[in-house]
Amino acid sequence: MQTQTEHPEQVLAGRIAVVTGGSRGLGKEMVRAFAARGADVVIVSRKLENCEALATEVRSEFGVTALPISCHMGDWDAQDGLVERIYGELGRVDVLVNNAGMSPLYPSLVDVSEELFDKVVSVNLKGPFRLTALVGSRMDSGDGGSIINISSIAAERPTPSDLPYGAAKAGLQVLTKGFAQAYGPNVRVNAIMAGPFLTDVSKHWSMDAVAEKSKAYPLQRFGRPDEIVGAAVYLASSASSFTTGAVIAVDGGRSSMTT
What we know:
Keywords: Oxidoreductase
Number of domains: 1
Shape: globular
Number of strands: 7
CATH topology: Rossmann fold
Helix content: 40-55%
CATH architecture: 3-Layer(aba) Sandwich
Pfam families: adh_short_C2 (PF13561)
Number of helices: 7
Structural class: alpha/beta
GO molecular function: oxidoreductase activity
Distance between the termini: 34 Å
Organism: Leucobacter exalbidus
CATH superfamily: NAD(P)-binding Rossmann-like Domain
Strand order of the largest sheet: 3-2-1-4-5-6-7
Order of helices and strands: EHEHEHEHEHEHHE
InterPro entries: NAD(P)-bd_dom_sf, Sc_DH/Rdtase_CS, SDR_fam
CATH class: Alpha Beta
């Protein structure tokens, strides 16, 4: 079966795309998809060795520039250094994907610690706010660009097991609409509201439970990681030139359900 990253048109040739949380999961798929379509890529995550490994892979496979950078996306001040390095080495950013996220487990709501809550909000909301402000303002004063926030179905369909995460992602969708107003018309800001995907995190899930749960979804399955690519490339490219402030569900139909 041909995947969505095989033999693509070079619709992003000459562009520079930054993906946070870019060394694994959905982030890795987007990095590979952008590189396959001709973009130079900046791969950002906390573990530099993972970024370097993927950078080597995409350079070899697609012949593009790939810059690996270690950065903690929940650290407000670290975003300034990240942006300075990217612009210092590559000169500009055309596409920014705020993908880094975390949703740690907790035994009960009363057991959620302040430290856990703050970490979840920092990575999923505070970091994207600061990075979008820094990059978006530069895009706005330059040649424009596209910013893509990776949200979650938890923003609209929260459960007791992911409330801090869902609240942070709901906030990210608010930021999407607000930044679209702040930096339009030169910068487009959109979000992908992702449903359940079978990324590396899913290795710890019960596949029997996944199969049972997905029966209720319109597509009756969870997503493959490469299925984020279509929406991401659309929003990164000129194909979405009249799309901003939008939240696009890529969730197997979960958000269409009434219960």
